[in-house]
């Protein structure tokens, strides 16, 4: 699955009409990714239909992307 495959979902998000993030993430295509909520929201919900973003990341197979959450103490930042 690539960003372009999600264009119908992105169109529903753009159209508004109460299409919240909770409804967005409940889509079966997104659930199959098993991405953390923060990443799903920022990577796809917020930017998934941004032209420049799609050009930069549109060729990535989203199912192959694995995320690992790590806790980093503020002092290390």
Description:
It is a single chain. The chain has about 80 residues and is mainly α. It has one domain (about 5-75). Helices cover about 45% and strands about 0% of the residues. The chain contains five helices and no strands. It has helices spanning about 5-15, 20-25, 30, 35-45, 50-55. The protein is globular. It starts with 6 loop residues before the first helix and ends in a 20-residue tail after the last helix. The mean pLDDT is about 90.
For the structure shown, list the relevant keywords:
77 residues, mainly alpha
List the helices and strands and how they pair.
Elements: H1 7-15, H2 21-25, H3 28-31, H4 37-45, H5 51-57
Unreliable runs: none
Strand and helix order: HHHHH
Overall 3D geometry?
globular
Q: For the report, how would you describe the main beta sheet?
A: none
| Number of separate helices | 5
Fraction of helical residues: 40-55%
In terms of quaternary structure, what is this?
A: single chain
Number of domains: 1
Mean of the pLDDT scores? 90
How far the N terminus sits from the C terminus, by CA atoms, comes to: 34 Å
Helix/strand/pairing category = mainly alpha
How much strand? under 5%
In total, the number of strands is 0
The value of Rg in angstroms is 14 Å
